[in-house]
Design goal:
With about 270 residues, this protein is of the alpha+beta class. It is built from ten helices and four strands, in the order H-H-H-H-H-H-H-H-E-E-E-H-E-H. It folds into two domains: about 150 residues, Four Helix Bundle (Hemerythrin (Met), subunit A) (Up-down Bundle); about 90 residues, Nonspecific Lipid-transfer Protein, Chain A (2-Layer Sandwich).
């Protein structure tokens, strides 16, 4: 597992790349619809700002975060919309500045946390490096929606390793989201990094296996591509089913993307 300092550095690098994409937009482009139904680019950035605000609060002020988490209602969608409402009314330039401020504050707070300790979070406390990896997952997912809205092909780096490790750690979230029981047998994940490095997770002799490009794996677990549009191969009945329900985040799965909505490699 990567150390906290490395994860924070890579979190910042991912954020800088996303910010470079956003900085080139005209005010009108912030209203561009994204593949997420009803969400524009502004919605995507507002969601990221709200999520990173919570992460920064959790790391800097655990008690304040616990009070905030305790005030959330049982309606997931209502909580999301309430969080969006803190940022969405802002003009694009203001929203962009607020997003960068929330990202910077969260990164600083997580970097200052005890690497061996835990940070409170919405379901269970997490090591700060894992919460930072979750932040990278959020930027990957919502950044992909922004890139898709703009017709931009993103360049991937070895930093995807943090997201891959996080998704393997949370491999059962797809089952939990649907009230299903995860298989008892551990899966084997054999993935190829953007630089061509082999990344392996799980028992080497597992009968349930998922293989393919790490980028496609990340697109799958963030539900930004349908599994049939990805170069992932499943071996075993459970692994094949997992491709249909995989997600690296808690809460409702959402609509995901339809088969054929994006061609392979796009």
């Amino acid at each position: 597992m990567a150390g906290l300092r490395e994860v924070i550095q890579d979190l910042d690098a991912d954020g800088d790349e996303l910010d470079a994409l956003l900085a080139s937009l005209t005010p009108e482009q912030w209203a561009t619809p994204t593949p997420a139904p009803g969400w524009t680019i502004a919605h995507q950035v507002a969601h990221l700002a709200a999520t990173f605000r919570m992460a920064g609060l959790a790391a800097a002020d655990p008690e304040g975060f616990k009070n905030l988490a305790g005030s959330l209602g049982p309606d997931f969608d209502a909580n999301v919309h309430a969080a969006l409402s803190q940022f969405l009314p802002d003009p694009p330039a203001v929203l962009f500045d607020r997003w960068k401020a929330e990202r910077g504050a969260a990164s600083k707070a997580l970097a200052a946390a005890d690497p061996a300790g835990f940070v409170p979070w919405l379901v269970n406390p997490l090591p700060p490096s894992i919460l930072a990896s979750a932040g990278m997952m959020e930027m990957f997912a919502h950044g992909q929606d922004i890139a898709d809205a703009l017709g931009v092909r993103r360049t991937r780096t070895e930093r995807l390793g943090h997201l891959v490790a996080f998704a393997v750690r949370t491999w059962d979230f797809g089952y939990l989201a649907r009230g299903l029981t995860a298989p008892a047998e551990q899966f084997r994940f054999d993935l190829v990094s953007p630089a061509g490095t082999q990344w392996g997770f799980g028992p080497e002799d597992a009968t349930q296996r998922v293989e393919g490009p790490a980028e496609d794996f990340c697109l799958l677990v963030t539900r930004r591509r349908h599994h049939s549009d990805l170069a992932l191969v499943a071996t075993g009945e459970h692994a094949a089913h997992w491709l249909e329900i995989a997600q690296a985040y808690r809460g409702p799965a959402g609509e995901g993307r339809e088969a054929g909505q994006f061609s392979q490699g796009s």
